[in-house]
Amino acid sequence: RATPGSSWSAMSVVCVLLVLATSAAAFSPRALWQRYKCGNQMPSSYPRAAPMWAKAWQAQITPICEFTGVVGQQLAFDILPTAIHAHVTAEHPKKPLVLYLAGDTGVGKTTFERIIRTTLFSDEHAPGVYVFNSFDYSDPTRLRENRELLRKNIIKAIRACPRAMIVIDELHEMAPHVLDRIKDLIGPQQPVHLHDGTRVDMRQAIIVLTTNDGAETINGITAELDRDGVRRADFRRQRFVDAMVLDLEKKSELLVFKSSVDHFVPFLPPRSGELGEAFTLHLNKYKCEYAKSCIDIEWTPRVVGFLNSQMGSTEINSVSFVKYGLAEVENKAVQHVKKAIERADTGACGTITLSVVPTADGEALKGTFQAVRQGHTDL
Known about the structure:
- The strands form four sheets. Strands 2-3-6-1-7 form a five-stranded parallel sheet, sandwiched between helices.
- It is of the alpha/beta class and 379 residues long.
- Mean pLDDT is 77; it is low at 1-8, 10-37 and 39-67.
- The protein is built from twelve helices and 13 strands.
């Protein structure tokens, strides 16, 4: 038996047993499963300070070897890093974070949503990331079935991972009134008590909704400001948000979200001739890919301008915007850049230089390969 003068008193033994019991509970298979099965990197491994988090976010969106395709969306960058940081680091959030990303086709909504996934999770397909395609719930003849199916799937996702990220993509394609069935799940009254006597707590989750609804309004405001000479950096998000909310009020089936959405995020149409950054990112992507095969990629200054000139355009209120948005950047890059690189790649170590050359029909992109210790080959 331990004596008062020994190193192990009775109280010490009790304390050690309590610590061991607590540790065992914390590191039990069930606890470890709940903690790590979702692939969640938060909160221990993520910067706590908002400026640091924003800096990490900026590094995430423009890595030189991973083209993301999101450029010119300062209104989104201004709000999303701060909002997500505040939610994922909150000890006791009061409700799930609901983000409503709206804009035309190809402006970067889905790409941005994927950035959120890879920023918060180990990868965009990690357990804990659930993507629901609205096309799967678009049949109006199966309204009752789809309403219950969506609700059931979201509840199942949250029970598997309370800190889940749930994406409902292409919201405009979903049949009317399907969303009514999940109004309580994303609302402020948490946890939600279910009819079977159980409950589900959504407070730690992030809900991302992407839609083309409101694109016409967003494009119209953007065109007006552009025509008036207002710099994109001086755009005020609230003007867009007010208009987006008015659009929601015109669609009764979407009114269920009006009070639950924490942030309405407008995605603006890119202006014609201003996609140099996007094309440069694409060129850098190819540069990184081919570097693994002992091939360096270089390009003359005129290449980016040439690619810009190949983009289709559309006019809104006498202002020219890129047709099909940023989605068309990749199409043009593949059409011109990738083909020129692949034709010039002989498999040997060396450098491929891209340049713009005159042709009978105007101009074209040409790749010139120069092997190490060899001459060069024009293709």
